[in-house]
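Late entry, evening session. Most of the bench is empty. Finally got around to the prediction I had been postponing all week. Sequence below, unchanged from the version circulated by S.P.
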Amino acid sequence: MEWLEKMNDALRYIEENLENGIDYRMAAQIACSSLTRFQKMFTFVTDITIGDYVRYRKMTLAAQELKETDIKVIDLAAKYGYDSPDAFTRAFRAFHGISPSDARNNGKTREYPPISFQISVQEGDTMLGGKTLIRMEQLHCRAVEFRVNCMEPEKHAWNLMREWVLKNLRDYEVRRYIGYAPCGHHPEGEGENVHEYCALFLLHDDEGKDGEYFGAKVVDAPRGVFLVGDVVLNEYFEDCTIDIGLSMKNASQTIYECMKNMGGYELDFDGRTYLEEHFFKKEWFTADCHEAILPEYRFWLPIKKQSV
């Protein structure tokens, strides 16, 4: 894939300029991308920011030089773009857990190897190196549904689900939970308003075949093929709390770009919408202040094969 080759070209540029200073806009230009898209794609794929990656690589190379040469710390600091030996030492200790002098004496340091991107397809997943970049899933099952139409419907729907789960089930930690807003999260525009939201507890095999499961209503879960990818929670409001909505939006854009790069598929919003898979920690179910415990998320984008 051409986009993959361009991403690797950008990584080679970064590696070759760790000592000279890196122009991130130049790296994005080499990748044939905007700087914002390049940063988001890099973080989505690697789980670290491009800035962290550069710092990790600098600290890896600096430790190697400390152990293999007689270079002074002040010279290393200047070589890798630090304003002072103290700033370099702080960064070195944060990464390796020891000071530069300790690293020179005992040689025990961390190593972060250079990254390269490779894509393969394995059992229906699009793989980037050893990490699943996009997983393709076909959803076809029943689910327990908690549907509400009110202010803050996500909060109320998941609380109803949580109460029902704790009352009736023991294996709730290994189950799958999916939510969606049939008419969108803000059908009348941005801001707070009443809207509909569904929280789903996916069922196995013959569970709920009679239309109920432990007294709860059973429905058919949204059906069809989806591209599924992780949501990186790296967007924040001004008060420093996590902006889940914007993080979700960024993930959707990245998954959409991946779909275009894969080829052969297109969006399918005909009677369908995107889904949000929630991964709840045990404490979310059991703690008194469970609302402060954020789940992890995956974004499900509805797709179909392009017509010939």
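Two things to note before I forget:
The radius of gyration is 24 Å.
Residues 120-127 have pLDDT under 50 and may be disordered.
Will write this up properly tomorrow.
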